[in-house]
Amino acid sequence: MPRLLVRRPSTRLADGELTHLDRVPVDPALAVTQWETYVDAFRARGWEVIEVEPADTQPDGVFVEDAVVVFGDLAVLCRAGAESRRGEAPTVRASVERLGLAVVAIDEPGTLDGGDVLKVGRTAYVGASSRTNAEGIAQLRALLEPRGWRVVAVPVRRVLHLKSGVTALPDATVVGFEPLVDDASAFPEFLGVPEEHGTAVVVLDASTVLMSADAPHTAALYRDRGLDVVTVEVSEFEKLEGCVTCLSVRVRD
Ligand code: CIR
């Protein structure tokens, strides 16, 4: 059964980091409702949900994808690019250790945010962003290449993380909103989509994707390609430069 690692929103969510967006009011109660609906969408499709210990002192702790990336039976604990987020790691490590995966960590001076890692088959595209540095990418490459992964660094300047700009459909097509993609030529199969919030998809199963409700034209495009599309409201997280991918870590069988 696929497993989903999540962490409920901090009461200080509204104080989360912002890089490209201006701060606007966040509704904490609505954020919790949206988070619960998001988690339920997985539960309804047979995913086992595992909650990381809540961390109210960590405003961005809900974006658990940034703290760990799973490659088969290897979990790579990240070292956050934003100093304010480094306190998220110990509780994530404790949860990951209970999953029974081999656990390794990115070390100082490396930084790596999980939102910068896009897995497509056995290729890991890694965003060279304001959060992920060259040393972090080098450490990840040293861990993955001996295990049969290809690591491809790609520039990320227009958005926070690589996966704020591009993700992948079940058939490995990389999707992105072109004005926010620094180098679409890095991806062998690329599909431009018409809305910024349509670029983030989570693959629920071979024919189903989960995405933001704030991209109806993109949802229609995916349906035209034969996909089942589940949409959820994630407005309160989008205000903080989050999206459907960063709210969970997916551990697939
Ligand atoms: C941050 O700036 O770190 C958070 N406010 C948003 C993190 C979003 N994570 C992601 O895209 N993977």
TrEMBL record:
Protein name in the entry: N(G),N(G)-dimethylarginine dimethylaminohydrolase
Which family does the record assign? Belongs to the DDAH family.
Q: Does Hydrolase appear among the keywords? A: yes
Instruction: Write the record's keywords in alphabetical order, separated by commas.
Output: Hydrolase
NCBIfam families noted in UniProt: DiMthArgaseDdahStm (NF045660)
Q: Per its UniProt record, what PANTHER family does this chain match?
A: DIMETHYLARGININASE, DIMETHYLARGININE DIMETHYLAMINOHYDROLASE
Among Pfam families, the record links this protein to: DDAH_eukar (PF19420)
According to the record, the signal peptide region is none
